[in-house]
């Protein structure tokens, strides 16, 4: 019996909850029910609907094309993990481009997690917001995160980067966008300041490389894409 279960059985539940190690507070996201209703009344897919709302029509397809061109998505892509899928727009596109036999998602927003599990029949475990706890080590062909590392607190991002090192197999890919130092020139900083948005968290490219490249990953390509008031940098790593 593990120490944790012994402690849980001996303590009153209120005290046990109070003594649990803290988990990061989940970052909030757009509500699932309203978004689905909005898409239905507009007669659009959820992906097209949110792209229209965010003035980003075609952006999901453009990004997925880059993943195919780089080899991150191919016939060999069988096990996929996605962190923070939100509406699931990248799940839908991934299934249209390859045939994964296993697709695991880690999503902190409970409403979207349930909707995604039901809609796409993917594995969607309870998400603790920082680890890939049901994913086996050295098992993943592609791990992707879109619009997530742009605002994760640094320590949470590092936890996920270490998990990426644990789960991606040799030959597998890690793809995500991040607000690197290249995303903050003076004009872009002014645009952020002129807006109400304060969510970006800079994660420098050298810091990301220092974690992934010491463990066998190589940065195979990178590109900028419009994000919020400025841009985010997509990074494609292969192991
Ligand atoms: C900006 S949205 C992007 C959603 C989706 N990837 C897209 O591009 O449409 C960020 C997503 O990450 C989720 N999220 C935030 N913090 C998270 C965490 N620590 N672990 C997993 N998901 C998280 C949010 O609930 C939300 O679904």
What are the defining features of this structure?
single chain; 239 residues; alpha/beta; Rossmann fold; 10 helices; 6 strands; binds S-adenosylmethionine
SSE blueprint and pairings:
Blueprint: H1 3-10, H2 13-19, H3 32-42, H4 46-53, H5 59-70, E1 79-83, H6 89-97, E2 102-106, H7 110-120, E3 140-145, H8 154-167, E4 168-178, H9 186-194, H10 205-212, E5 218-227, E6 230-238
Bound molecules: S-adenosylmethionine.
S-adenosylmethionine (SAM) binds next to helix 6.
Describe the structure.
- This protein is an alpha/beta fold and 239 residues long.
- The protein has one domain (23-238): Vaccinia Virus protein VP39 (Rossmann fold, 3-Layer(aba) Sandwich), CATH 3.40.50.
- It is built from ten helices and six strands.
- It has helices spanning 3-10, 13-19, 32-42, 46-53, 59-70, 89-97, 110-120, 154-167, 186-194, 205-212; strands at 79-83, 102-106, 140-145, 168-178, 218-227, 230-238.
- It has a six-stranded mixed sheet.
- Helix 5 (59-70) crosses helix 6 (89-97).
- The longest helix is centred in the last third of the chain and has 14 residues, at 154-167.
- It is globular, with a radius of gyration of 19 Å.
- The model has no long low-confidence stretch (mean pLDDT 92).
- The structure holds S-adenosylmethionine.
Main sheet makeup: 6 strands, mixed
- CATH hierarchy, class: Alpha Beta
What's the total helix number?
A: 10
Strand content: 15-25%
Multimeric state: single chain
Shape: globular
Q: Fraction of residues in helices?
A: 40-55%
Bound molecules: S-adenosylmethionine
Distance between the termini: 37 Å
- Return the CATH topology: Rossmann fold
- Per CATH, the architecture is 3-Layer(aba) Sandwich
CATH 4th-level superfamily: Vaccinia Virus protein VP39
- SSE string, helices as H and strands as E: HHHHHEHEHEHEHHEE
Cα radius of gyration in angstroms: 19 Å
């Amino acid at each position: 019996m593990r120490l944790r279960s012994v402690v849980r059985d001996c303590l009153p539940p209120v005290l046990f909850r109070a003594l649990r190690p803290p988990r990061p507070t989940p970052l909030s996201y757009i509500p699932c029910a309203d978004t689905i209703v909005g898409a239905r009344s507009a007669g659009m897919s959820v992906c097209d609907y949110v792209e229209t709302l965010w003035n980003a029509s075609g952006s999901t397809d453009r990004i997925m094309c880059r993943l195919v061109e780089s080899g991150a998505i191919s016939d060999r892509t069988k096990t996929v993990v996605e962190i923070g899928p939100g509406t699931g727009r990248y799940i839908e596109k991934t299934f249209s481009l390859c045939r994964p036999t296993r697709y695991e998602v880690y999503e902190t927003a409970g409403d979207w997690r349930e909707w995604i599990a039901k809609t796409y029949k993917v594995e969607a475990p309870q998400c603790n917001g920082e680890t890939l706890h049901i994913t086996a080590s050295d098992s993943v062909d592609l791990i992707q995160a879109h619009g997530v590392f742009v605002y994760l607190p640094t320590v949470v991002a590092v936890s996920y980067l270490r998990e990426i090192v644990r789960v991606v197999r040799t030959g597998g890919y890690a793809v995500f966008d991040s607000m690197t130092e290249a995303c903050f020139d003076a004009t872009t900083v002014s645009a952020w300041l002129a807006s109400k948005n304060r969510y970006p968290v800079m994660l420098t490219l050298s810091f990301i490389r220092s974690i992934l490249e010491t463990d066998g990953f190589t940065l195979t390509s990178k590109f900028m894409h419009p994000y919020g008031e400025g841009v985010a940098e997509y990074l494609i790593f292969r192991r």
